[in-house]
Amino acid sequence: MTTTVKRKLRKTSESNAGPKDPAEYGIAWAKTLYTTILLLTELLVLGFRLVCCSLESLYHLLLPPVEKSLANEIVLVTGTGHGIGRELCFQFAPHGCTVVCWDIDSKGNQETKTLLAKQGYTKNVHVYTCDVSNRNAVLATAAKVKAEVGDVTVLVNNAGIMPCHPLAGHKPEQIQKIFDVNVLAHFWTLEAFLPTMVEKNHGHIVALSSMCGIMGIP
User: Fold this and answer.
1) 3-state SS string over the chain?
2) Rg of the Cα atoms in the chain
3) How far is CA 82 from CA 77, 105, 160, 194, in A?
4) Which of 2, 149, 165, 206 stands 20 to 30 A from 121 (CA)?
C-alpha cells in the first residue's frame, strides 16, 4: 500500500513539474513574456497619463482659461419657478445677458422675476408660463420668445420632477409624467431652438440631470 501511494505521489509530482517538450517550454515562456510586456506597457501608459494630467492641471492653475462672456446673450432657463432654476437666473443675470424664465408655475416664475428686480435686474428679465412636457406649448412659447425677445443663444434644460415613491408605488400617469418632463421635454426645446443655433453657428445647450441617473436612492 505504501508503494502504491509513493507511485501516485511520484506521478503527481511529475505531472506538476511542467512540460517536458521544449516546444511547450517555449510557449509557456512566450506567454509569460507577453503578459509581462503587457503589464509594463499598461503601467507606462498609466504613468504617462498621470504626468500629462498633472502638467495640464498645473498649466490651468498658473494660466486659467478665459471665461466666455455672456454679455448680450439670450439665456433661456426652464424650471425657473423655484430651486436650481431660480438660482441659475440669479447667476446669469449679473453677466449682462438677457434672462428668459420658463416655468409651468406662473406664480413662482413671477416671484423669480420680482427677486431679480430687487437685485436691480429689471430690463433684461422675461417670464413665460410654459409646460415643457407639451410639445405644442413649447413650440408656441418659443415662437413668442423669438418675436418679443430675440433668438435664444443659450438654452438651459433644467426643468425636472422627481416623485419620491418606491418603484412599485408609481402610478402609470406618474411614470408617464416623469418621462414627459425629464426626457421628452429636452427634445421639444431642442426642436424649438437648435435649428436657429445651427443656422447662425452660435449657441450653447446645457442639460441638467440628477445623481439618481447614476445611483439609486432609498
Assistant:
1) CHHHHHHHHHHHHHHCCCCCCHHHHHHHHHHHHHHHHHHHHHHHHHHHHHHHHHHHHHHHHHCCCCCCCCCCCEEEEECCCCHHHHHHHHHHHHHCCEEEEEECCHHHHHHHHHHHHHCCCCCCEEEEECCCCCHHHHHHHHHHHHHHCCCCCEEEECCCCCCCCCHHHCCHHHHHHHHHHHHHHHHHHHHHHHHHHHHHCCCEEEECCCHHHCCCCC
2) 31
3) 12, 9, 11, 26
4) 206
Contact 76, 156 (CB under 8 A): yes
Contact 81, 133 (CB under 8 A): no
What does the block give as the cell for 10? Answer: 511520484
pTM of this structure: 0.69
According to CATH, what is the number of the domain 74-209? Answer: 3.40.50.720
Question: pLDDT 10s per residue in the chain (218 long)?
Answer: 455 544 544 555 555 555 556 667 777 888 888 889 999 999 999 999 999 999 999 988 888 888 888 999 999 999 999 999 999 999 999 999 999 999 999 999 999 999 999 999 988 999 999 999 999 999 999 999 999 999 999 999 999 888 777 777 878 898 899 899 999 999 999 999 999 999 999 999 999 987 766 766 65
Comparing C-alpha atoms, which of 139, 140, 116 is closest to residue 127?
116
